[in-house]
Design brief:
The protein has 328 residues and is an alpha/beta fold. It has 11 helices and 10 strands. The protein has 2 domains: 163 residues, Bordetella uptake gene, domain 1 (D-Maltodextrin-Binding Protein, domain 2, 3-Layer(aba) Sandwich); 100 residues, D-Maltodextrin-Binding Protein, domain 2 (3-Layer(aba) Sandwich). α4 runs parallel beside α11 and α6 packs across α11. The longest helix is centred in the N-terminal third of the chain and has 26 residues.
Length: 328
């Protein structure tokens, strides 16, 4: 008798759970149900900040919730990126990634405690801009071939400005040196503008920077561009050859931006965010804004974003090891 009553109670409890389970599912609010924090791991005003704020604004419009942009600078973007990697993977904390934060920093700085291939959900690639090789007005080389000849004739005599250890400019410089088997004297600078200022004054001879930063100075005649480290010529500099046209097809590099969140984000949330990104990248005014910055949209799936970033890590691992690059 007792066992029968117990069985009935268990059965009744099971029925109640089964009956209320759909209600629990229905009670879950659709994503996003509140504001989203978009972390930009650099100070305001730079290219990453401008693009990040543009996407934050458009994501808010698409998703129907505020997207709050937070600039958190430090350790070349690694501090903010690590904080996002450790956040709850619920889609409410995202980060704008780039070559330093999501490919190179972990290779050159032993204090970076995340692996971008394992600790992030890569939602979408957003844009890319090719690196531009600049020369000072007084450099006695009018082409990449002449530069290589001059560098080999005077090993270590030419000064190349580096805008941060592990930056896209640094990696492109190291790739160029290793590919051409040339020796250049590295001079570190704290950012693109101080380096370009000294290049204009011929205190430095060479510099690799994203085309966005350099275009006004080249168009204004203050600096010379020897080559574009991209797959095609720039519309704003139609007479400047690509590295492939200049005889160095292996020297190709882009600075890029991406959208990522912590590892383990639900697939439906990732897909919703990716779809929003694809729609934003197709908007004519967004394309126009990017074009004025020499950026090009890079639409694609989350899987393609993850694959690209894994390939970037692998590519720069070899360059960093060969160049013995390390931040102590």
């Amino acid at each position: 008798m007792y066992r029968t009553k117990l069985d009935r109670r268990i059965a009744l409890a099971g029925l109640l759970i089964a009956a209320t389970a759909p209600l629990a599912v229905l009670a879950q609010p659709a994503y996003p149900a509140k504001s989203i924090t978009l972390v930009i791991p650099f100070p305001p005003g730079g290219q990453t900040d401008v693009l990040g704020r543009l996407f934050g604004e458009r994501l808010s419009q698409r998703l129907g919730q505020p997207v709050v942009v937070e600039n958190r600078a430090g350790v070349n973007g690694s501090l903010a990126s690590e904080a996002v990697a450790r956040a709850r993977p619920d889609g409410y904390t995202l980060v704008i990634g780039g070559p330093g934060t999501h490919a190179i920093n972990q290779l050159v700085n032993p204090n970076v405690k995340y692996d971008t291939r394992k600790d992030f959900t890569h939602i979408a690639m957003l844009s890319r801009v090719p690196m531009l090789m600049l020369a000072s007005p007084e450099l006695k080389a009018g082409s990449v071939a002449e530069l290589v000849s001059l560098a080999k004739a005077r090993p270590g005599a030419l000064n190349v400005a580096l805008t941060g250890i592990g930056s896209s400019g640094h990696m492109t410089t190291e790739l160029f040196k290793q590919t051409t088997n040339t020796s250049l004297n590295d001079i570190p600078y704290k950012g693109d503008m101080p380096a370009m200022t000294d290049l204009i004054g011929s205190q430095a001879d060479l510099l690799f920077v994203p085309a966005t930063s350099a275009l006004p100075f080249v168009q204004g005649g203050k600096l010379r561009a020897l080559a574009v480290a991209g797959s095609k010529r720039l519309a704003g500099l139609p007479d400047v050859p690509t590295m492939a046209e200049a005889g160095q097809p292996s020297v190709v590099n882009y600075s890029w931006t991406s959208l990522a969140g912590p590892a383990g984000m639900p697939a439906d949330i990732v897909q919703k965010l990716n779809q929003a990104c694809q729609e934003i990248l197709a908007q004519p005014d967004v394309i126009a804004r990017m074009t004025t910055m020499s950026n090009e949209p890079t639409p694609g799936t989350p899987a393609q974003a993850a694959s690209f970033i894994a390939a970037e890590v692998a590519r720069w691992t070899d360059v960093v090891k060969t160049g013995n690059i390390r931040i102590e």
